[in-house]
Prior knowledge:
By secondary structure, the protein is of the alpha+beta class.
Amino acid sequence: MKIDFKKMDGLVPAIIQDAFSGTVLMQGFMNEEALAKTEKSGLVTFYSRSKNRLWTKGETSGNFMEVVSIAFDCDGDSILIKANPRGPVCHTGADTCFAEVNSSKTGFIDHLRTIIKDRKNNPTDQSYTASLFAKGINKVAQKVGEEAVEIVIEAKDDNKELFMGEAADLLYHYLVLLEAKGYELDEVMDVLIERHKK
Ligand SMILES: [Zn+2]
């Protein structure tokens, strides 16, 4: 599907969504040139109806929005862009133009899982994750055990930086273990959701 710019006098709405949190950040309009510039530069660029010219979001504030993916809707008259905002999106200083808080970074876990899956399916010599898969399930499970012990040790101390490091290690190795077993995080969520119902 391509965009049919003629359908609406050369302009189509573009919805910008945070690639990690899924929060809708803003909506603007793009003409063919704006879309081409967005694709080429990797920075979201609109056609500004008030300025009457192309407008790269962040060109004055520095709060650019880096493009992660671009999709067109089913009938070719709107654009969905997933992006990473470098700062608050709205000129008011709010995170989004809908005055919402965009603080959730948990969507990054899905991004991380995609990378982990890719390292399993397309291993490279440089990849630590691929080297874990190569060592097999026992080694991966053992690493989770080691990281669990390390976070326990840090929990008893009072060093936030070291604790966060171990917390990140545990979460990462836990995700690798799920992937090594061929299970999805969603299946773990199903268990939690089921328990929550009771
Ligand atoms: Zn705004």
